[in-house]
Specification:
two-stranded antiparallel sheet, globular, Ribosomal Protein L13p, Chain: A, 144 residues, 4-stranded parallel sheet, 5 helices
Length: 144
Amino acid sequence: MSTTIINTESSDHNWYVIDAEDQVLGRLATRVATVLRGKHKPTFAPHMDAGDYVVVINASKVKLTGNKESAKEYYRYSGYAGGLKVRTAAEVREEDPERIITQAVKGMLPKNRLARQVIAKLKVYGGSEHPHAGQQPEPFPAHV
């Protein structure tokens, strides 16, 4: 038995598109984080970026269960005294619907340089249109 070591040049990066309409936020985010990291591939290595690109459309229509629409809060801090901004999920959905999915996926990635490289492969759009038709994204795999 020999261990196969891959490098970033030999790994292929596929493009997937997923419709977030009526999907539960947490379950969607775990599946997206898995594909972004490449954990669904047999060539997964925790120190390598072997994941795929994910395009999420209809981010404004993602489902939040329970009373999270009014109880879940998103924080931004400017770094200055009194600079803490608190918004509910409903307010964030109205202002910037992409942020809900991006923050959920980002929280499921490791906190290191590789995660910053991986999160760049996530493309989130509030509507049903996206500019990545040239990459010919496939429908999101149901088995992941």
